[in-house]
Design goal:
globular, twelve-stranded mixed beta sheet, 24 strands, 18% strand, 18 helices, alpha/beta
Length: 554
């Protein structure tokens, strides 16, 4: 079987003008970025939505992989194969994982979006613009302090980080402004990865350029000596930041290998941000298609929770159905199987890992009141006995289990899944959030997510978190949704607790407001906003030939 990049490079994409015609987009709404990419005019998002919105999520990720993006792409192709007008809406990949552990992030096998090299690398420059806007704000903040500090900013209270779209642990904690004199005011500083920047969240939640500017202006960057918040608007920074983002805010149109229109836009991580593509891309897709298939990062405890409790709430979206992706291999890992023996039949390990999937299904169907289907991303090593055991284990949850073979067969491998999704979308649902915004204060909302979604007994608030919550509530931020920063590998805040752990608490180390995005970020466990590279990063295997062909991307 050829590699993902070899499959993508052997395919000749259609001109993006033809893909736009398929999506019902007139050429006057296109801004071309070569033959196979285009940005879409923001006016398209103002059209009335008509599509059923389908979320693809997954079990907690493992080293065995789940194939969530691959399933998302293949499902959209499958819907078109059964005669439905579908568009896929995805996030843009970050360079951090591309050069770190994961490699490419545009799907896999015969269920990919293309041009995969462009999408995985610089694409249309959106992430560079987001990083530039975030770093402009940082530069203006430090310049204000250096130039006399009329706002009375306490340098020790600066909370706005610089960012770079790369895994670089060396930048987690730095000393800046060293050298004296004209070199700035010395202070402790730090970087985050661009996808964790509030500017990324703001861009992905903004509904227009005017809304983008207003959100940018509300960003809290520091506090003065009296504890009053200093915002980007106080520094008169939002106009210039919006100017840098005027093109980045426009959704990007590309295509799947089968010619299905795909909107790829925005890319916040789900373990340290809200993990969804942009509201503008989703609403544009919903105005053009009858079915929009989108995904949210990592497992349903992170990506789906934030998609439903943050994105859907703030953008007034109502999903019609949810697909929960799992693999036999990953469930066996959750059940304690050795990662070197996943090709061997192991019913005991599979049954021990199934509770992880069951908890995700329960959350989607009972906590959020949405109809769901489990998509088993099939591997050649899955045995009939394992598949039968998996299907039987979910019978009492009133959730169908459908085999998906999109990696090997593309949309043809998702025809059964597509038919099940259509049936689910036609059912009425009782969609609700995991908590109400008026449900007590910040701690109450954190507790609601921890107990209702994660299955924790309670939360433990460290002293710093208690102080920060008290100040944020006094500053008027107590009725915002919470964005949990938590390990993706477990329902708990301990990455080693696989399966469906019980008898644990969630420890909250700190909280901060993302006033522009409109939520409060909650830091749990040892989660960091700047990842590091592994011992042997994927970058070691990526190269370019003399003719410009990229190799080793995935």
């Amino acid at each position: 079987m050829p590699s993902d990049i070899e499959i993508a490079q052997s395919h000749t994409p259609k001109h993006i003008r033809e893909i736009a015609q398929t999506a019902g987009v007139d050429e006057c709404y296109l801004e071309y970025y070569g033959r196979y990419k285009a940005k879409l005019d923001l006016a398209l998002a103002d059209r009335p939505p008509k599509a059923k919105l389908v979320l693809v999520t997954a079990i907690n990720p493992t080293a065995a992989g789940e194939g969530k993006t691959t399933t998302t792409v293949g499902l959209a192709d499958g819907l078109r194969r059964i005669g439905r007008n579908a568009i896929v809406a995805l996030r843009e990949p970050s360079l951090g994982p591309v050069f770190g552990i994961k490699g490419g992030a545009t799907g896999g096998g015969y269920a990919q979006v293309v041009p995969m090299e462009d999408i995985n690398l610089h694409f249309t420059g959106d992430f560079h613009a987001i990083g530039a806007a975030a770093n402009l704000l940082a530069a203006m903040l430090d310049n204000h302090i250096f130039q006399g500090n009329e706002l009375g900013i306490d340098p020790n209270s600066v909370i706005w980080p610089r960012c770079v779209d790369m895994n670089d642990r060396q930048l987690r904690n730095v000393q800046s402004g060293l050298g004296g004199g004209k070199n700035g005011v010395p202070r402790e500083d730090h970087f985050c990865i661009t996808v964790a920047s509030e500017v990324m969240a703001v861009l992905c939640l903004a509904s227009s350029i005017a809304d983008l500017k207003a959100r940018l202006g509300r960003i809290v960057v520091a506090y003065d000596a009296n504890g009053n918040a200093i915002t980007a608007h106080d520094l008169a920074a939002e106009g210039a930041m919006a100017a840098l983002l005027k093109d980045a805010i426009k959704p990007n149109l590309v295509q799947t290998l089968e010619g299905t229109p795909a909107l790829v836009h925005g890319g916040p991580f789900a373990n340290i941000a809200h993990g969804c593509n942009s509201v503008l891309a989703t609403k544009t897709a919903m105005a053009l298609a009858d079915y929009v298939i989108t995904e949210a990062g990592f497992g349903a405890d992170l990506g789906a929770e934030k998609f439903l409790d943050i994105k859907c709430r703030l953008a007034d979206l109502k999903p019609s159905a949810v697909v929960i992706v799992a693999t036999v291999r990953a469930l066996k890992l959750h059940g304690g199987a050795d990662k070197t023996a996943l090709a061997e039949e192991n019913i005991a390990a599979l049954e021990a890992g199934i509770p992880n999937l069951r908890r995700h299904v329960r959350n989607i169907t009972q906590v959020y009141g949405l109809p769901a289907v489990v998509a088993i991303n099939r591997f050649p090593t899955d045995t009939p006995r394992e598949l039968e055991a998996l299907q039987g284990a979910l019978g009492d949850l009133q959730c169908n289990v459908v085999l998906s073979e999109v990696w090997a067969k593309g949309g043809l491998g998702a025809v059964d899944l597509a038919s099940e999704v259509v049936a689910l979308c036609d059912k009425p649902n009782r969609f609700r959030y995991a908590y109400r915004l008026d449900e007590g204060g910040i701690a109450d909302k954190i507790r609601a997510v921890a107990t209702r979604v994660y299955g924790a007994d309670d939360i433990v608030l460290e002293e710093q978190a208690l102080r920060q919550i008290d100040k944020l509530e006094r500053d008027g931020y107590g009725n915002m949704p919470v964005c949990m920063a938590k390990t993706q590998y477990s329902f708990s805040d301990n990455a080693a607790l696989l399966g469906a752990p019980t008898g644990f608490n969630i420890t909250v180390r700190g909280v901060k407001v993302s006033a522009g995005a409109g939520f409060v970020v909650v830091y749990t466990g040892n989660i960091m906003t700047m990842p590091g590279l592994p011992k042997v990063p994927a970058a070691n295997h990526i190269d370019v030939k003399d003719d410009g062909t990229i190799t080793g991307l995935f």
